[in-house]
Amino acid sequence: MDRRKCFSSWSGGKESALALYRAKEQGYTPSYLLNFISEDGQRSRSHGLAAEAIRVQAQAMGVPIVQVGTSWEQYEANFRRSVQDIRGRGVEVGIFGDIDLEEHREWVERVCGEEEIWPVLPLWGADQATLVREFLELGFRAKVVATRLDAELLGSDVDEAFLTKLERYGCHPCGEAGEYHTFVTAGPLFRARLTVAEEGTYTRDGVHFLDVTVKVEED
Question: Does the predicted TM-score (pTM) go above 0.90?
Answer without folding.
Answer: yes
